[in-house]
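From the shared-data thread, chain only:
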Amino acid sequence: MLSLYFCTVKVILLPILFVMTCLLHVKADVLFSDSFEAYADGGLPSPTWDVYNPSNLSLAHVSNAEASVGSQSMYIRNGDSKFSYLEQNTAINISGNPDALVFSFDIKGTYSLASHEGLSSFEVDFGSGFETVLSDLGELQGGDHTYTGTTLTLSSTASSSTAPFIRYAITVPKTYFADVLSASTVRTKLSTKSGWSNLNFYVDNITVTAIPEPSSLLMLLSGFGLLFAGMRTRNPRS
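Structure, as tokens:
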């Protein structure tokens, strides 16, 4: 009776452990992540990022004044597009054969936003130049979005007050970045826009994630089913 009990436990637990291992192997793969913790406060986020006029640190620098993750973020001073951007220097390799890429970041403004101010553009270079993926002037809306080649332009409603960090997550499916563009690398760029001295921006927690193909999980779960069936065959009930 005791032997039967242990056999039953083994039949139940081993497949569960197998499935848990499978899920660990098919989880989303973080290709790039930066929350600006590795740079000196008040300095530049180099060599990872480029800003306009890096010799003038008043225009853009790493800051410990605000953060959505950790204790630092990237400060971008107000003004025209000449100096209100943050551009990734080195392309990120797209490893494996992901079903989608997810680009996410946090941003906040230091004052209320008029309808012509805010997130001027979030852009991605898929290997042939930057494409404007999303624009969100006025109140920062954040949220989850899907990009397939047409710029996502969110409503430009002015905000009446400041807001905490707002999170954006933009999914780009394989049918676009791989099938249409044949992309093997990506780079990101974020630009802000404002018209007066009290409105500045903080950017944090920029991440690029690869989502595995559903077929990968199905293959692993199929293997689990075969393993479970085999174990049941080897340990029939008496």
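The CA atoms of residues 78 and 200 lie 5 Å apart.
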